[in-house]
Amino acid sequence: MSVPGSKRGAIIALLAAVCGVCQALFPRESPSREVKDVSGLWSFRADLSPDRNRGFEHEWFKSPLAETGPVIDMPVPSSYNDITQDVRIRDFIGWVWYEREVWVPERWIQDQGTRIVFRVGSAHYYAVLWINGVKVTEHEGGHLPFEADISSVLRQSSSNPCRITIAVNNTLTLQTLPPGTIEYMTDRTRYPAGYFVQNTNFDFFNYAGIHRSVLLYTTPQVYTDDITVETSFSDNVGLVRYNVSVLGSFKSSVKVTLTTKDGRCVASASGSRGALKVTDVNLWWPYLMHENPAYLYSMEVQVSTEDGQTDFYTLSVGIRTVKVTSTQFLINNKPFYFHGVNKHEDSDIRGKGFDWPLLVKDLNLMKWLGANSFRTSHYPYAEEVLLMADRHGIVVIDECPGVGIKDIRSFGNVSLTHHLTVMKELVRRDKNHPSVVMWSVANEPAAEMQPAGFYFKELVSYTKSLDSTRPVTYITNSNYARDQGAPYVDVICVNSYFSWYHDPGHPEVISIQLNTQFDNWFGKYRKPIIQSEYGADAVSGLHSDPPMMFTEEYQKTVLQNYHNVFDQKRKEFVIGELIWNFADFMTAQNIMRVVGNKKGIFTRQRQPKAAAFLLRERYWRIANETGVLPTWTRYPCP
Ligand code: GCB
Fold first, then answer.
1. How far apart are CA 259 and CA 278, in angstroms?
2. pTM given for the model
3. Which residues form the Glycosyl hydrolases family 2 sugar binding domain (predicted)?
4. Over the chain, what is the mean pLDDT?
5. Which among 188, 424, 429, 582 is most buried, taking Cβ atoms within 10 Å?
6. Domain housing 157
7. Of the residues 399, 517, 580, 601, which should be mutated to test ligand 1's pocket, given the most ligand atoms within 8 Å of the CB?
8. Is 444 a catalytic residue?
9. Do the domain assignments include residue 515?
10. Model confidence at 635: pLDDT above 60
11. Ligand 1 atom at shortest distance from the alpha carbon of 599
12. Are residues 474 and 574 in the same domain?
């Protein structure tokens, strides 16, 4: 059975050859680098042809998009789904085409010593990129950046402004992450010819399009391609081990300097690998754990060649350690208790499109709540989010898009290979963020299925081989006795919805069921446990006393019952609680959802429900018990 846009099958087969395009370093300006943001208004067309393949057959990338059919304006970054009044665009499956003309500074093109790179923050799910009609790269995966060196294409074609075309396909198959299936409805008494639907096993809308910024940036021909830092400390001396990967020359020298916030150089070294010692170190501490949280040093990497080329790149470095014992999660050797939220990249109109006002508002709400952590459920978030978390000391569990792996055919070799590739891209992008303290390789896979044992053993050990400094987990909701993956993880993360999906309307059973859950998991695995999801839907403004499901009172009651148990178990081996969910979010239409999932403690417009105030009291109380707070943050805060 073909996939909408049959070309897609062939494109995925090519992937192994082109996946070197995933990028590592967040693009930054420096004395040797320039950045030009080409987000904004793009031309757009969805390929509505029956097999979604007309664009490839008619080579829409070869001429301006407006010459091959009608186009509409489409903002980038944004999901395209909620931008128009056209239901066909909202629910579209298959290829859509974006195009924009961009002036590339003439001196970039003239100067042969300049490398010009095109970077897409993310495009969901599969993307192909052409510059002036020449294909330059393609990328699988909807939540991580990709880039291509476009210097030679630009220098060979004389056309400036240059025409950028990006085709994006949101089709999910058994081998994509997340997986899905396309179902063709062939009963002609019920469906029109060619009718198909996209089925998924996850609970959020499959928003699509170019979701993050699109940039052009430059480097010299000899440049820093990647930096890896690993930090530790002993007494008051911090240690930053670094490894700089340089491309473009075998003969280059590397100089590294570390400076404090006020610009004082505290350590320097030469060579592409080395260690920097910092006396009187300021450690990176989480928000609410220390009076001076989130301390970041600046590490300047300078790469020079004999013929006079120099590349500068500055990385923010937080010096901290992470360790897990059988009952504790330690940051800088002190017990850390996660009191935080699960999120989604989701908002009105933009869908999953990155938006600065939304990011800053969400950060402010998390701080107001007294949250010290969040999980990037159920996919990697924009890197801007992690940079913000680094700067504010919010701890992150970084999750890959392994959500909805429920079909046994998604545990095969093709799926595993792709899952490993995604982990590689994710670790490459996020390894230097001090806020990231744990990798989550999946959410609620069918871990009871027999192949899950091998699958997770491979996945977890591969992730550890990429990064030995952080624990690895996946999020489970299956029975402790039948979970095939739990033996391999460092921390058990359990989701449960007592008195919601089980025993609906009966919060009085939560205490006994939650105690049993914790004792079973800890009894079997002797590993610390995070309640990685719990909650209840509440339609904002709906009330009842005594509480009934879907009211704000019921949501509060469920939370209170969970909290009573957490307060007992956090004295033993429970190391965290993450509410499901920070805010209401959109889902596919189905009989379980009323215009989306309403388990948010904030509405989708970020207004608090009653549960937000309950959680705020709780988080600040826990912070006051466990942290060392500066006076201005003591609850109730100003
Ligand atoms: C879960 C899933 C999450 C859902 C949530 C719910 O276990 O991990 O994606 O949205 O439950 O509300 O059902």
1. 10
2. 0.96
3. 36-220
4. 95
5. 582
6. 34-170+206-218
7. 580
8. yes
9. yes
10. no
11. 12
12. yes
